[in-house]
Amino acid sequence: DVKVTQSSRYLVKRTGEKVFLECVQDMDHENMFWYRQDPGLGLRLIYFSYDVKMKEKGDIPEGYSVSREKKERFSLILESASTNQTSMYLCASSSPGDSRTGELFFGEGSRLTVL
Amino acid sequence: AQKITQTQPGMFVQEKEAVTLDCTYDTSDQSYGLFWYKQPSSGEMIFLIYQGSYDEQNATEGRYSLNFQKARKSANLVISASQLGDSAMYFCAMSPNAGGTSYGKLTFGQGTILTVHP
Predict the structure, then answer these.
(1) B45 CA: distance to closest CA in chain A (Å)
(2) Nearest to B104 among A100, A102, A108 (CB)
(3) Using the beta-carbon criterion (under 8 Å), do A43 and B106 form an inter-chain contact?
């Protein structure tokens, strides 16, 4: 069974803290993504990666950075967390080579609260 | 830029009845893909159905069908014979090109919460 695993389901952090959200996929997918989900706004793309050590900005990259040192792992970093980054964060992966639809496979999400 | 609009924040349906969830989109691309995802209260996103912009027939997957009206730029999801387990948030999404090369750069709508009553 294919799987995208996010390291933490729930996190509570303080303003100014550095936050790491980890995501691991076991499907050997080339592409990995970080989305943010907020009520009334749906999901918005923060960053994505097509390959190891490469990254591209999505629609809302401000305040975030990412790291992809290995194919299976994609980390989202909040250098200095702020209250407006309180949200649900969803990691996803896909492989354009083996899916006719370009379907995304999602993790279960990480709900971050910044106090 | 692509935009997806879901105008129904919430919908209610009786068990065993059909329900239509609305989705309209805006794009200047000629080639694009349209998706529907389901998100139960547990949080995971479940892929339901896909329609490519060049597909002439409406996509169907079991009880799910996508009513694709290209001229009207709509991609409504029809769920037949609703079940209690269909209660969830539903998202419409769009990719910048069709045919499996979207690379996952989906643009999502705001979502519709569907509640199925017994």
Answers:
(1) 6
(2) A102
(3) yes
Q: In angstroms, rounded to a whole number, what is the distance separating the alpha carbons of residues B5 and B26?
A: 8
Select from A24, A26, A34, A21 the least CA-distant residue to A60.
A34
Q: Find all residues with CB under 8 Å of A64, minimum gap 6, and list them.
A: A34, A46, A47, A76, A77, A78
Tell me what percent of the residues of chain B surpass a pLDDT of 90: 75
- Which bin fits B43, alpha (ψ -120 to 50), beta or left (φ > 0)? left
Residue-wise pLDDT for B59-70, tens only, equals: 999 999 999 999
Rounded to whole angstroms, the Cα distance separating A14 from B2 reads 35
Q: How many residues does chain B have?
A: 118
* pLDDT (average), residues A6-31: 94
Q: How far apart are CA A88 and CA A22, in angstroms?
A: 13
Q: What is the pLDDT of residue A99?
A: 52
* pLDDT of res. A48: 92
Q: Does A38 touch chain B (CB under 8 A)?
A: no
Secondary structure of residue B88 in the 3-state scheme = strand
Q: Which among A42, A94, A108 is the nearest to B104, CB-wise?
A: A94
CA–CA distance, A76 with A66 (Å, rounded to integer): 5
